[in-house]
Amino acid sequence: MKLVPTSLMKHAAIAGLCLAAMNGARADAFAQAVLVIDNFRLLHSSGAAFKSTDFTMLDGTNSAHATASLNGVASTAIPQNRGILSGTGPDVAHQFVGLPNPPRAENNFTAFSGTPPVPGTFGYADQNMTGSAMSIGAQQAGVRAETRADASLANDGEAAGDSDVGTSTAFNFMLGVGESITFAFDGTPFTQAYASTGSGMETNAIARLSWSVNIMNLQTGQMVFAYQPGELNGYGNVSRTDSFPGMSTYNPGKLSFTATTPMLKASETYQLTINQTTLANALQDTVAVPEPGSLAIFGLGLLGMSLMARRRN
């Protein structure tokens, strides 16, 4: 029997092990959530927009916050509050940790194009709100509220990134004349989650968004109206894990919504609350599972080492 030279087996073994290491599967995870609410208005039953003068009492604020984090390092914007009669909305500075720096320009609410590859390793969050839900003087009714959150992990180690953004409006009011209020607006939701194949059992990517409006009677303590459309809530929650790799996307495009309250009394005080939130989270495992090709190459390396041991014996 012709024996294979020891030096050749040694080189084959080393080459096989090195190729296996080079061809290990990446442990990438990515999530993004973007929600744009546009032309939000409070309407009379006639279809005309409410004016600030239609209320005998009106007081409240528009508030916003944004936080981004990566591997335990967080960046949080100073929360902003704007009076609802000021005619201006909050616009917190975008928050980001990681690279690229920044991942997106300030007030850029265009989603990243499809993955893979993932766009970097970072946590990112941003928010902007303009306009008013009612006519204030010469300013016409119409609010645009934009929020986004991104978490991207493009390295092979253990890392976690998460971002959350929130915008809320809360005000107390009393109508000059008892009537119902119709909420009319457009909404454009977008969520996406991606996890690479063989990225490890702990890898996951989650993207969520939520939007709701509620009215409570402050004198009776009863909730008289609640609206939480599924298209801007649970329908848009997407996730991916190592056991369910690939990409999930929720992108229904621009949607129109209307909802009308029951009759509200002129003699009673109500509190209206609107909440808008986007959340993205990504986590990847410490050890990536090798791809089949890598396992085969690794096996060749082990075989070479085994032949070398047998030859010495």
TrEMBL record:
Pfam families reported for this sequence: PEP-CTERM
Keywords associated with the record: Signal
Superkingdom of the source species: Bacteria
InterPro entries membership: EDSA_1-like (IPR048213), Ice-binding_C (IPR013424)
Domain Ice-binding protein C-terminal: 288-312
Signal peptide: 1-27
NCBIfam families listed in its UniProt record: PEP_CTERM, PEP_EDSA_1
Name of this protein: PEP-CTERM sorting domain-containing protein
The species this protein was found in: Massilia atriviolacea
